[in-house]
Amino acid sequence: MDFLKNENFDLVLLDSMDICSLLTVEKLGKRFVSFLPFQFSYIDFGLPSAPLSYAPVYGSGLTDQMDFWGRVKNFLMFLDFTMKQREILSQYDSIIQEHFVEGSRPVLSELLLKAELWFVNSDFALDFARPLFPNTVYVGGLLDKPVQPIPQDLEDFISQFGESGFVLVALGSIVSMIQSKEIIKEMNSAFAHLPQGVLWTCKDSHWPKDVSLAPNVKIMDWLPQTDLLAHPSIRLFVTHGGMNSVMEAVHHGVPMVGIPFFFDQPENMVRVEAKNLGVSIQLQKLKAESFALTMKKVIEDKRYKSAAMASKIIRHSHPLTPAQRLVGWIDHILQTGGAAHLKPYAFQQPWHEQYMLDVFLFLLGLTLGTLWLSVKVLVGVTRYLSGARKVKQA
């Protein structure tokens, strides 16, 4: 901490998932911008909230097109998420009490609102459309890099399969923790049914000794994923659904079959399926026959390739690259002394004011009060007229 205090930072870029870095920045008294490493979902990080009627809650498995029961599920998950987030944030109370003096102890939910800017690792070529405040910038594809020629041994392998092309399989850096012998066996058997060649990121040390590698499959410890996705002979990308991998596939217009494991991967694949960019398969249900049929379906059905190319056009049509957007906006707030002009007053309003609940209750009370008074007056007039009629008859 002393080292950081001696550094003259103008601005801090932090991961919104790391609460400790948020408290560190507050202790240093520095301005910061926050980076959301996955798609914009309904989690209260101080970001603007779209209506629950079309903004799916993280982990719900819903799209932006929900029926009645989908909206019920979404609302209940929102309530559950809100309570869980409060529990998570409360676990930092002891740290706050230890490192901040009484009277200047921050409230974590309020610290989240202090971000000058929010950078979201997604793109509307993939994500569901939603309203954004000016201090929220999408920078999905930040890791995009120029395409390089692939090594000759890979080119030679691909050329063996001619017009059939090849399938790229890359399931992330932690695949060794999840890819069991049974899963490898089922996947290898499925690949053997394809007319395409298969390039598979899989270490030799993880390959079961009693499983013979399919003749159309080549495994390697590492593959140049970006360069292979840009290759004209690629037909399919089998991925774990990580955001960076999905964004690379979108960038190059490659259809996907996803095998999501955890965290944001299932949510990413929900969007892939909703945009018709590919199909998702549950790891627990992965069997050779159904896996092979799914891959053939995505390769042969031209709708997937067409949708992937349409998303590629959207992705490439931005006037600025993700890196240019990020650097440009950071430069903007450094020049203007902050982003107060980009933050709406809603950040300072209590939730009942934001959602006009106080106005709704006031108007409801006024309406009910008026109806009650009208009924009372009507009853009173009716009784008076009835009494007057009886007196007249007497």
From TrEMBL:
<dbReference type="GO" id="GO:0015020">
    <property type="term" value="F:glucuronosyltransferase activity"/>
</dbReference>
<dbReference type="InterPro" id="IPR035595">
    <property type="entry name" value="UDP_glycos_trans_CS"/>
</dbReference>
<keyword id="KW-0812">Transmembrane</keyword>
<keyword id="KW-0325">Glycoprotein</keyword>
<feature type="transmembrane region" description="Helical">
    <location>
        <begin position="359"/>
        <end position="385"/>
    </location>
</feature>
<dbReference type="InterPro" id="IPR050271">
    <property type="entry name" value="UDP-glycosyltransferase"/>
</dbReference>
<dbReference type="InterPro" id="IPR002213">
    <property type="entry name" value="UDP_glucos_trans"/>
</dbReference>
<dbReference type="GO" id="GO:0043541">
    <property type="term" value="C:UDP-N-acetylglucosamine transferase complex"/>
</dbReference>
<comment type="similarity">
    <text>Belongs to the UDP-glycosyltransferase family.</text>
</comment>
<comment type="function">
    <text>UDP-glucuronosyltransferases catalyze phase II biotransformation reactions in which lipophilic substrates are conjugated with glucuronic acid to increase water solubility and enhance excretion. They are of major importance in the conjugation and subsequent elimination of potentially toxic xenobiotics and endogenous compounds.</text>
</comment>
<protein>
    <recommendedName>
        <fullName>UDP-glucuronosyltransferase</fullName>
        <ecNumber>2.4.1.17</ecNumber>
    </recommendedName>
</protein>
<dbReference type="Pfam" id="PF00201">
    <property type="entry name" value="UDPGT"/>
</dbReference>
<keyword id="KW-0328">Glycosyltransferase</keyword>
<keyword id="KW-0732">Signal</keyword>
<keyword id="KW-0808">Transferase</keyword>
<keyword id="KW-1133">Transmembrane helix</keyword>
<keyword id="KW-0472">Membrane</keyword>
